[in-house]
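Following up on my earlier thread - several people asked me to post the actual chain instead of describing it. Fair enough. Here it is, all 161 residues.
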Amino acid sequence: MEELLIVTTGGTIDKVYFDDKSDFQVGEPQIGRILEELGVAFRFRVIPIIRKDSLHIDDADRELLRATIAAQPTRHVLVTHGTDTMVETAKALASLDGRTIVLTGALNPARFRGSDAEFNIGTAVGAVQSLAAGVYIAMNGRIWDPLKVRKNVSANRFEAA
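Reply from S.P.:
Thanks for posting it. Predicted structure:
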């Protein structure tokens, strides 16, 4: 892997909570800080394009993401994204040939102790380096085909569709 392109869209992974009523905002992307703290042995570049909860990501945002990735020469791409509409976004990226694109996120903010963010990022980094070209989702310790997975909201995890 010559370089890992990371494109961030917001989501729970980057959320910052302000009070007991769970008032939050999507903050600065956390993935660059996480990878630097872990001392990874590869080059990466972070392009933050939007800061939204994924429930607010629309087709225009998905097109911006697709166009941003298409404009870069990098073959290996990791996208951080909110979990609620991650599957829809992954499907929208399917037309990008010749690249390995892995979407990941977190069910708890990266700033929280016990967050799944670092684990999901690690899974996604391994996947993006080893999988054939295509679009994948890395969540809950598994690599998923976007056409065969869904988020089970009540169980708060991804599962086979």
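Residues 44 and 138 are 18 Å apart (CA to CA). That should answer part of your original question.
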